[in-house]
Write a structure and sequence with these properties.
The complex is a heterodimer of chains A (about 240) and B (about 325). Chain A has about 240 residues and is α/β, with parallel strands linked by helices. In chain A, about 35% of the residues lie in helices and about 25% in strands. In chain A, the strands form two sheets. Chain A has a six-stranded mixed sheet with strand order 6-7-8-3-9-10, with helices on both faces. In chain A, strands 2-1-4-5 form a four-stranded antiparallel sheet, with helices on one face. Chain B contains 14 helices and no strands. The two termini of chain B are about 40 Å apart. The relative contact order of chain B is 0.17. The chains are: A alpha/beta (about 240), B mainly alpha (about 325).
Chain lengths: ~240, ~325
């Protein structure tokens, strides 16, 4: 069990009656760095939403730490140790940075931890959520999820729309979060090279299924495969 | 902390000024204070948690009848009566909220109205207990804290209602800044996100609805003790709707808006109805239209809007 913290077996899921994920099986080990890459519409976000219980599970099973997630409410999955940073960031615009963090403070988590990881947030702690730049919003979204002490951190396209310098800063933070090996990080990203450089293992998705799975280093070397399934930005 | 002390000082000063300036209108001022407590309860539910309701009178009425019956049959102590009102309001909110909080939007609004109407009908039918359409009479509250007797002029009633209103305001100010209060605002803005960060939206909404019910019950209990009468009007749709208009006028989610909106609505109502008993609603309607169009965040946002306007004017001029 120790090598399979999160396990998905033959999962079929989607929104309402629509099936987006089809017969997908996947496992995540404790402390693992997993990159999930693929084109738009491949099912990457749906995969994370399914893990969090935000979609309809049509078939298959999900387990976390040996417990079935199949009928578990999303908020209880978070309490168990799953933390999602959504693509939409979902900052609460009327709350200040500090209030955004306080709204989900859990157990022994402190604001100082968040500020140590993102000093910029401390500088802007009195600013409203709507006054933040895209990069700052992403930092806040990540920090807010970390306040809930996740064992598996699910990052949904955290670099989307951000300046290269901010992307570098965030990737450094992801390295920091993953380096002690106690927290698994699942990084969904269209910036395939950045994601593969970070991850130890990678899956390539297309049409709601996994079309390739293996060490991240192998995949980054296989430009033809990457070009076929990711396309733009990858030279074959 | 300084801001909170300043707001307490301002409210105290306003209370003292109203008492000194309108010594012959204490009954009316007391009605405003009771209404502020009810509108504050609505601000917790609607302003913070985003729960749309048009049935807050249900908890107000439950609190009023509970406090009245408690004073008649159990104990005349006013503070104990307030607690009885709070418990009745909270119980009704918790029981009805267990179902209501699973719904949203129009369904929720219609169900909240239905709960208040059912309560009114029960009170009407249970004539032997509630007095039915004649209302519950014979409420004789004892001395406040064993010291101050309710007097004919209404001095005790005014300061008693003022103290309760201030305590409710302070309690809500603390709740609004707590992680619980912030999570309610988070639920208001993005319930899906709150779920994903481990918050049971249903439970938080139910907790907020129950707290709001307790506060509305306190408002009802205050009314029963001070007017010494509880009528079926306590459950009326008009009361719920007026409370909502007062909150929208003042501004939702900021507590001060509940105070400001209630004072302005009731003052305008009082003056306009005295001058033209048949058309006073036009004045209220015009006021609501102006606020909704030009100050969608309520009258409490007026200083900020004026400041922006002044800045814009300067920029335009330079």
């Amino acid at each position: 069990m120790a090598d399979r913290l999160l396990e998905l077996g033959n999962v079929t899921a989607g929104y309402g009656p629509t099936h987006v994920l089809r017969d997908l099986s996947l496992s995540v080990a404790p402390g693992e760095r997993l990159a999930v890459i693929g084109r738009n519409g491949a099912g990457k976000t749906t995969l994370l939403n399914t893990i969090m219980g935000l979609t309809r599970l049509h078939g298959g099973h999900l387990r976390f730490g040996g417990r079935s997630l199949d009928r578990m409410a999303p908020h209880r999955r978070n309490g168990l140790g799953l933390g999602l940073v959504p693509q939409t960031r979902d900052i609460f615009p009327s709350l200040t940075v500090e209030e955004n963090l306080l709204s989900c403070l859990r157990g022994d988590a402190t604001l100082e931890e968040a500020y140590a990881l993102f000093p910029r947030l401390k500088e802007r702690r009195r600013n409203g959520g709507m006054q933040l730049s895209g990069g700052e919003q992403q930092m806040l979204s990540i920090a807010r999820t970390l306040m809930t002490r996740p064992e598996v951190l699910l990052l949904d396209e955290p670099l989307e729309g951000l300046a290269p310098v901010i992307c570098e800063q965030l990737m450094a933070v992801f390295e920091e979060l993953a380096k002690d090996g106690t927290r698994a990080v699942v990084l969904v990203e269209q910036h395939a090279e950045a994601a593969l450089a970070f991850a130890t293992r990678a899956i390539l998705m297309a049409n709601g299924t996994i079309v390739h799975e293996g060490p991240a280093g192998d995949l980054i070397a296989d430009k033809t495969l990457l070009h076929r399934h990711v396309g733009v930005g990858i030279d074959p | 902390m300084t801001g909170r002390l300043l707001s307490i000082f301002l409210i105290l000063a306003a209370g003292a000024a109203a008492y000194l300036l309108f010594p012959y209108n204490l009954a009316f001022l007391t009605r405003i204070l009771i209404m502020i407590v009810l509108v504050l309860s609505l601000d917790l539910i609607l302003g913070l948690a985003g729960i749309a309701t048009l049935g807050q009178a249900a908890m107000y009425g439950a609190g009023a009848y509970a406090a009245g019956l408690f004073a008649i049959h159990v104990w005349a102590d006013p503070v104990a009566g307030l607690l009885a009102g709070a418990v009745a309001g909270a119980l009704l909110a918790a029981v009805s909220g267990a179902v209501l909080m699973r719904t949203q939007g129009l369904t929720l609004i219609m169900l909240t109205i239905a709960v208040a109407q059912i309560c009114a009908e029960i009170a009407n039918r249970a004539r032997g207990v509630t007095g039915g359409a004649d209302g519950l009479r014979g409420i004789r509250p004892g001395k406040v804290l064993g010291l101050w007797e309710f007097d004919f002029i209404g001095i005790t009633g005014y300061w008693y209602a003022f103290a309760v209103m201030l305590l409710v305001f302070l309690a809500l100010a603390i709740i609004a800044r707590s992680p619980f209060g912030l999570s309610l605002r988070g639920i208001h803005e993005s319930p899906e996100r709150m779920v994903a960060i481990g918050v049971s939206v249903y439970r938080r909404r139910l907790a907020a609805y129950t707290m709001g019910g307790a506060i509305a019950g306190i408002a009802g209990a205050l009314s029963a003790q001070i007017t010494q009468l509880v009528s079926l009007e306590s459950f009326s749709f008009t009361l719920s709707a007026e409370a909502l208009i007062m909150l929208i006028l003042g501004g939702t989610g900021r507590l001060y808006g509940a105070i400001l909106g209630t004072v302005i609505f009731m003052a305008v109502h009082h003056v306009a109805a005295a001058n033209d008993p048949f058309n006073w609603l036009f004045v209220i309607g015009a006021l609501v239209l102006v606020v909704v169009f030009f100050l969608p965040r309520g009258l409490v946002a007026l200083p900020v809007s004026l400041k922006r306007l002044a800045k814009g004017g300067r920029h335009a001029g330079t």
